[in-house]
Amino acid sequence: MTKPDDSSLQDHELANVIRQAQRLLKDAGAIGRFPTPIDDLMAAAKVTVIEDEILDESMLRRLADKARAGLAFGVNVIKSAFSKVLGLFEANERLVILDKEVPAPRRAFVKLHEAGHGSMPHQTSMYALMHDCNQTLDDDTKDLFEREANVFASEVMFQGDVFRDHALSSAFSVKHAMSLATQFGGSNYATFRRYVNVNPRACCLVVVEPEALIGSGGRHEVRRIIASKSFAEKYDCSSLIASVGHGHPLKPLLPYGKQRMVAERSFSLTDRNGTAQTFSGETFKAKQILMLFREK
Fold first, then answer.
1. In a 3-state reduction of DSSP, which class is residue 292?
2. Which residues of 98-132 are buried (b: 16+ CB within 10 A; e: fewer)?
3. pLDDT tens for residues 256-265?
4. Is the four-CA dihedral 23, 204, 113, 74 of positive or negative sign?
5. pLDDT tens string 5-19
C-alpha cells in the first residue's frame, strides 16, 4: 500500500520550520561544512543523545509512567513503516534516544527529527501545556508535529538552499544524487527525496518494495511517490500507484534478481492533457527500489 504523505505543510507552517532549522544551522556553525556536523547540531540544540537503547513496549511504558508522574512533560516517537519505534524525544530532560536497530545511514536523520521536536518553540510549549492539563496531543496535532519534524530534519541535514545549489550543479542522475548523499551525510533515500523536491524540472522518485507480491506474477508494490512541483502540476501521480509489473510505465526500471542498478532507460508517461511525453530514468536497489526519472 502506498504510504500517506509524511512531509507536506502549509506555507506558513513551512516558513516557520525553515526559520527554526536555519537558526539551528547558524547556532552550530554548520552551514557549508560537509558532511553536515550532526554532533555539533545536537550540542547547539541542547539535547543529549542516547544511542543503542532497546525501544520496546516495556521501555516505552516506563517512559509513559515517568511522564504521568510529572518527571517529563512530553515524549515523541518516530516509527518505522512497521510501527517499530526508531527514536524518541523526551522533552523535560531534552533526551534524544535511538533504538539500537536504527540502520547507520538513517541515524543522522532520526537524531535531527527528534531534535526538531525540541527546537520548535510551538511544539515544546504545547507539550508543557499538555503536561499541566494532564492531557495528550490529539491525533491531528501529533501528525502535524511529525511532519514538521520530518521537514526540519531534511532542512538541517541538507543545509537549506546549500543542497539545492549543489544538486543543480550537475546533470540529473542517480550517480549525482548518491554523491550528494555522501557529501551531506544523508541516506540515499532521504537524499533522493530532497534531490527531487528542490529540482525545477519535471522529475519524480518512486519507491518500490524489493520483493514481488506473492501470486502477483512478479509485480512490486509502490511504497511512496515523491514528485517535483512541476511534475505534479503536469502529471497525475495517482497513475503510478498501481504495483509495478507488466503494463506499468515504470516496468523498464524494475531490476531483476540480484541486479542493484538499472542504467538509464527511456519510457513514456501521459500528461494531464493526454499527450505522451518521453522520460529518462535510472534505478538503485538496496533495501528499497529507488526509481529516479525526469522528463526529457
1. strand
2. bbeebeebbbbbbbbbbbbbbbbeebbebbeebbe
3. 989 999 999 9
4. positive
5. 899 999 999 999 999
